Amino acid sequence: MAVTASEWLITSDVAQEVAFRVDLPEAGHGRWVLSYLPTHRRLTRAQAFTGLVLAEYLLLEWDSDTPPFDTEIAALHAAELGLTLHDVMCLLALRAGPHAEERPGPSAREDTANAVEEGTTVFAV
After folding, report:
1. Which residues pair with 9 in a beta bridge?
2. pLDDT tens-digit profile of 44-55?
3. Any idea what DSSP says for residue 48?
4. Got the DSSP string for 58-88?
């Protein structure tokens, strides 16, 4: 896992996600945008870095044969972004789109829609 950071851009070599600094003459000047969050959500540099680390963490665990990951740690990272772990997982799954692995049975979108619990907030990007 390697997240690379510069003054303007934070990238991941594992997840296809990125964070970049917004330097427009507006209230969010100097804040960061994370690729899997809606663009109106502006973050601190630390939050953007955490968001990319969390994306890598989840992606590596989905493809791993190792014991289950620590959901409490992942939930703490998600909370730093003002989201639940479930929200982050849904946002990343929605971004996977046509790249997602094909499965027999109902489509991945139908599976996701059916799995979302009542009262859960899901952000569509």
Report:
1. 20
2. 999 999 999 999
3. H
4. HHHHHT--SSPP-HHHHHHHHHHTTS-HHHH
